[in-house]
Amino acid sequence: MLKRRAAGILMHPTSLPSPYGIGDLGPSAYAFADFLRQAGVNYWQMLPVTETTRQTHFSPYSCCSAFAGNSLLISPQLLYRQGWLDKRQMDALPTLPADMPAFGRAAQLKNRLLNAAFERFESHSSTAVDYEAFCERHRHWLADYALYKVIQQRFPKKKWAQWPAPLRDRDKIALVAFQNEHRGAIAREYFIQYLFDRQFSALKRYCNDTGILLFGDLPIYVVYDSADVWTHPHLFKLKPNKTPAFIAGVPPDYYSKTGQLWGNPVYDWQANAKSGYRWWLERIRHNLSLFDLLRIDHFRGFEAFWQVPAGRKTAVHGTWIKGPGTDFFEALFRQIPQAALAAEDLGVITAEVRELIAAYVLPCMKVLQFAFNGKADNIHLPHSYERNCIVYTGTHDNNTTLGWFKRETTAAMRRQIAAYLGRSVTQQTIVQEMIRLALSSPARLCVFPMQDVLGLDAAARMNTPAKPTGNWQWRMAPESLEKTTAGRLRDRIALYDRL
Question: Which residues pair with 213 in a beta bridge?
């Protein structure tokens, strides 16, 4: 349960300015934290920070591990300050555009730097005084992840189900032989995760020390070609050849006549229950070590989920299957009683899902862009909010508020917006009016994307669902924080008792 009124900003670290292709955990992240503190913002919400891949277009929701940190977020500037790189190596770095995304070039650049840092680590490992403790603390996922990554590098064009059978099936003799042959490469993956953990933990301490809480995001599903499915195939519904028997999605609805196919394998919840939900609890515990509050994406999947036989071209011929429901959450809160969770409950939500959310007093979500459909009983209109909820002007899956108003609202919607606010709105005023409406609402937590704080148009949209490429591209211009008056935002946050 959220206990006090507060405000947050949604800003993924890759969108921060930096000279290395994408934003990272370096100086610009600390500058952004300083801006949040000056503006009176209590929460910094991020998208998932797990390891992304080129194959999935660097999507933070399609990662190769549910645990491993995103190596692209490791800051070269902090590596230099921490002694892992020297001045010559830093001076030799190319400067990439600070406000244009360059994931591919960033990956090449950082891979080269991480190789150099690892070489220094191998010759000066005594300087990493907490390295062994890190490896032991994360042993339950780190060893298998590192092994998966190196095997993947050995067979770069194959998914794990296409690896040689002894490696695919995790034959102990074959795995030991591979480990012995690739000790250096495996140790490198350990070290990279150590660096990520060190940098992210330092940023979290800095934020927490200034009163800022980190708000994370946990996708319910994992990618099939991931360390998790390879390591724990029995926890998923797979065929004897280890390929998915069913895939996740949502059924046909108002927005799509054929539904959506997501491509993720679905869980074998009976097998998960038999293990006491061990993998799931480790995953949530790990994420709560990174974040102070954690949003569970597609929460309704814990009550019931839509599964489609693998090979189908659309989601039409799927089936609703009951999820673990209260059995899972009883196990979760028994093991992690203070788990601070929020439920993503957008879309078509049944009474059973509402009951599950209410049973554990989880804050749910409201989105102002969904509010103006002409119906006074729309649950996204502020007069209908319960206090224990999180209101957004829009999420990472929405257009920016200005882009939405210009491109997606009808004349009837604009009339309803004006009637609800009690004054007319224009392209020049809509963003601030929506921010004010969110701040003034009964919702305990109000979050707006940084693009809305800056008043940006549709070009700054972060993600368009069902669009496979061209997402996650927005980056904040280096001068944006200088042009944004933190004091003005702070005054408005204070006006609505959210400091």
Answer: 43
